[in-house]
Amino acid sequence: MERIASGILAFRDKYMFWLNIPSVTAIDIVEIILIAFMLYSILVWIKNTRAWALFKGIVTILAFVLIAALFQMNTILWLAGKLINVGIIALAVIFQPELRKALDQLGRKKFFLGMFSWDPGRAVKRFSERTAGEMVKATFEMAKVKTGALIVVEKDIMLSEYERTGIPLDSLVSSQLLINIFEKNTPLHDGAVIVRGDRIVSATCYLPLSDNMELDKELGTRHRAAVGISEVSDSLTIIVSEETGAVSAAIGGEIKRGLDGEELKRMLMELADAGYGESRWQKIKRRFGHGQTSVESHNE
Q: What is the domain partition of the chain in residue ranges?
């Protein structure tokens, strides 16, 4: 073995003297692992908050700046250099609640246990046709008796911050369970239900209200909350009016009202398949006509 090792060293010194191989110590390996873990944690945090869409926008801007640098577009580079400091401060102000929450979670987290644990629940999967059918069935059963309901169906942007405002359930989606949750005078009927994959993950969740001044003034709190969550995520929210029993859906900051069972089922299935191509997502959004109005309760 010693002869083989000395032969390899001699070959390297004679024929590969030009190859500069840096020495890697155990400290270097630990440092690489820690940096990789920190970058991974930051990306996971960005993915699970509103910052994900902003992050993609920043990457797009950086790509344009890189192109400007390659072609020596000095004016664009000068503007980018002037705006970068202001942009960092603006990001800190805009995402102050998320940053504070992330630091709070970091202080409570079991650091080394989190490095080597795997949480399969974090993986977001599309829901099945059975789940879509159960949601449609529950929606129109509640619409018949005018039971108000708010069902948020998660897509790519995780709704963890809104999930934490409710009561965790982690239950398989069924029409009976959804109807029971929204039954009047029951502990879980107030607020929204969040559906992730084929499971109801939380109930009685608080959602942000939309401040869009173009929305119909007759829309109540339930509808404004549905539009609000659709403005900060890519989710689809089903609304049942407590006053009229009409079924509506909100997505992409828009609301479509007066849906029937077939149309709602089609929208849900297209959402389930939306991850396979952007055209499907655009197809869902095209179903929403601008300026559609109908009369519903003001006090929902």
A: 2-120, 129-286
Q: Which two tokens stand for residue 172?
A: 């398989």
What is the C-alpha to C-alpha distance for residues 227 and 253, in angstroms, rounded to an integer?
A: 5
In this structure, are residues 141 and 176 in contact, taking their beta carbons and an 8 Å threshold? no
Q: Quote the pLDDT of residue 121.
A: 41
**With the C-alpha atoms ordered 269, 199, 102, 117, is the resulting torsion angle positive or negative?**
negative
For domain 129-286, the CATH architecture is 3-Layer(aba) Sandwich (3.40)
Distance separating alpha carbons of residues 100 and 185, to the nearest angstrom: 36
**200 compared with 69, residue with greater pLDDT:** 200
Full 3-state SS string of 200-215: EEEEEECCCCCCCCCC
Span 62-83, pLDDT tens digits: 888 888 888 888 888 888 777 7
- Summarised one tens digit per residue, pLDDT across range 108-140 is 454 444 444 444 444 444 788 899 999 999 999
Tell if the pTM clears 0.85, that is, is over it: no
- Per-residue pLDDT tens for 208-253? 888 887 787 778 889 999 999 988 888 899 999 998 899 999 998 8
